[in-house]
Design a protein that fits this description.
The chain has 415 residues and is of the alpha+beta class. The protein has 2 domains: 204 residues, no CATH class; 193 residues, no CATH class. It has 16 helices and 10 strands. A 6-stranded mixed beta barrel has the order 2-3-8-5-7-6. The longest helix has 42 residues. The chain is elongated and about 105 Å long.
Length: 415
């Protein structure tokens, strides 16, 4: 009894059994369409966010959060750089490294990134030691010229632990006859790792830092210092602060810059998918327009009587806006609840489908995952709900405007 008149009438229209069953069917279709669209959009974005998180986590297990490297020349005073970095409370670990593009040859040839590390310090910045499937990282003792390969790289080269590979570096030097040739060295495979990320499993080889320094004639110099943060989002700020403290020309990069194209592509893919799936919500909104137009036509006499009783055109418009918006709210709430429940139980549902039909939808040897990763983000759910409510509200404007234009005398002429 305390509700405004348009709200009370709109709620009554929503609860009342309509004489035209087809209008009720269209309204139900509108609710289901909006709910289905919201559910599909929440679940899809959660799965895509889960895959993004999985890729990022696997990549950052092997890659540095930030690097501070020499600008155009090797970093000589890297021990001081490591000491200064570890004094920063935001830094979890720091270690020197050398990176050089190389061609690795055995029964086949394969280009790869050759990384020189200090085995005892590597666990401070990566989990390479935990990813070893054969051999140990500690076998990379200086002077032994051992090498650790990614699993895919080893398979492509056709080598196993104990075999030899030839590493050719693009470090050309003049020869007595006036030409140039790259630096070549034979290494023995002492271990194989599997990171679960193709860029490393097929494109990374690791050797002892001292061996690579000797091969490249760098003395005590290194490419730079790799940093691991407690909070990866602070990577660039910490790297920049370290470069300022060292007071020299340094190049600072973080994981977002080094992999900018990958994360930009993933973000664009997620955005495009969200736009496409929003069309399902739009279909529900179009159904809502149809049901509201038919309701306005069916309620011409009621509208005319309300107008003669003193209801203004604006209030008539509010009646049908309230009634249509409530349909949108019901559909959106149902979709949000359904989307959250489906996302939280998606892995179990997927396993059930695989058992029933005897298929494997996500082969472990292809995707390197044992389940379907999901990341339900509150910001995504809120955005989807707001978009659905906005579409439902916009869908009520035209039918409500038509209702407000109803002339009482014309509507009651044949009643």
């Amino acid at each position: 009894m305390f509700k405004p008149v348009p709200v009370a009438i709109g709620l009554r229209y929503l609860r009342a059994k309509r004489r035209n069953g087809f209008i009720s069917f269209i309204s139900l279709a509108s609710i289901l369409g909006i709910a289905l669209g919201v559910t599909a959009l929440i679940t899809t974005l959660a799965v895509m966010s889960g895959f993004q998180r999985e890729i990022r986590d696997r990549m950052l297990q092997m890659a540095a959060h930030a690097t501070v490297s020499g600008y155009g020349e090797p970093l000589q005073d890297w021990r001081r750089a490591v000491g200064v970095a570890m004094q920063d409370a935001r830094v979890a670990g720091a270690a020197p490294y050398i990176e050089k593009e190389a061609l690795i040859s055995a029964s086949n040839n394969q280009p790869a990134m050759l990384r020189g590390v200090v085995p005892a310090e590597e666990d401070k910045v990566s989990v390479l030691g935990d990813k070893m499937v054969q051999g140990k990282l500690a076998d990379l003792a200086p002077g032994r010229f051992n090498i650790v390969l990614g699993r895919e790289l080893a398979m492509w080269l056709g080598v196993a632990v104990g075999d030899d590979v030839v590493v050719t570096l693009a470090d050309f030097r003049s020869t007595p006859v006036g030409g140039g040739m790259g630096t070549m060295k034979r290494f023995r495979v002492s271990g194989i790792f599997e990171a679960g990320y193709n860029e490393f499993d097929k494109g990374l080889a690791v050797v002892a830092l001292a061996d690579l320094q000797r091969l490249l004639r760098m003395g005590d110099g290194v490419t730079g210092v790799r940093l691991k943060m407690h909070d990866m989002d602070q990577a660039f700020e910490v790297g920049r602060d370290l470069a300022l403290k060292l007071r020299g020309p340094f190049r600072v990069s973080d994981w977002t810059q080094d992999n900018a194209n990958l994360f930009r592509a993933l973000k664009m893919e997620k955005t495009v998918m969200a736009i496409l799936l929003s069309l399902i919500i739009a279909m529900g909104a179009f159904n809502l327009v149809s049901s509201q137009v038919m309701l306005v036509t069916d309620k011409q006499a009621d509208i005319a009587i309300l107008r003669t009783l003193g209801l203004t055109p604006r209030q008539v418009m509010q009646v049908f806006m309230v009634q249509g918006s409530l349909i949108g709210v019901i559909g959106t709430v149902a979709g949000v609840v359904g989307g959250i429940l489906l996302t939280l139980n998606l892995d179990g549902i997927l396993q059930g489908i695989e058992k029933v039909f005897g298929v494997q939808l996500l082969p472990e040897d292809v995707y390197y995952i044992t389940g379907l990763p999901t990341d339900l983000q509150a910001s995504d759910v809120t955005t989807i709900a707001c978009v659905a409510l906005a579409m439902a509200f916009l869908a009520t404007l035209y039918p409500a405007w038509r209702a407000a234009r109803t002339a009482p005398a014309e509507a009651l002429r044949y009643e």
